Amino acid sequence: MRKILLPILLSLFFVTGVNAQKWTDAEFRRANTAVNANYLTNEEKNVVMYMNLIRIDGEKFYYTFLEDYINNYNAKVKQYRNYNQLRIARNNSYYTSLLKHLKGIKNLPVYYPNGKLTDLSRSHAQDLNRNNLSTHESSNGDQFSKRISKYFPNKAMSENIDFGFSNSLDIICHLLLDCGVPSLGHRFTLIDQKYKLNTVGVSIQPHPSYTWCAVIDFVALPSADVEEE
Hints:
The structure is a single chain. By secondary structure, the chain is α/β, with parallel strands linked by helices. The protein has ten helices and five strands. Helix 1 packs across helix 2 and helix 2 crosses helix 9. InterPro entries: CAP_dom, CAP_sf. This is SCP domain-containing protein. It comes from Pedobacter suwonensis.
């Protein structure tokens, strides 16, 4: 749950299912828990929304938004001579395993944004940018658990970091596929049930080496303490 997804060119299994499943207005309303979180940018709000859509109906997300992501990615890299190496392929084990995991994801509790947790996410993303780092460890040596525990003591927590993308759908699909990460830690954080994670902080910031970095922090709070903003 604590590893970083680096900005590599992915080789994935391409979805051939017809993009016929539609999301309802009610599902979007339920997913859009960050709509009034004025401390988030629109793209950061959409990060929360896409995470929640996965939790509302994982298989539907697989056949709709994830398919859009893959189609767009393949179209972008088609201009390159090594397209066959860059494109999202059909036989990648990370992609084939994803459908198995998402088939069981239906109507899970959604994530709610939190202002203080977002402050921590933003501080770390800015630290990564300022010091050209690509790690969960702060420039002063603090691990993410120490940073978060200062304000959220004795809580289950996790952190996902993505490099190379500023678009919310790209960020979430990149983390969800989790290619090159055998533990699938980013994927399992997004679809968490074990640790009851329910609260998130999000920050997307520039990065000198990877252009962009996105820090998403998660904690499990008692229901009464979850901010419905």
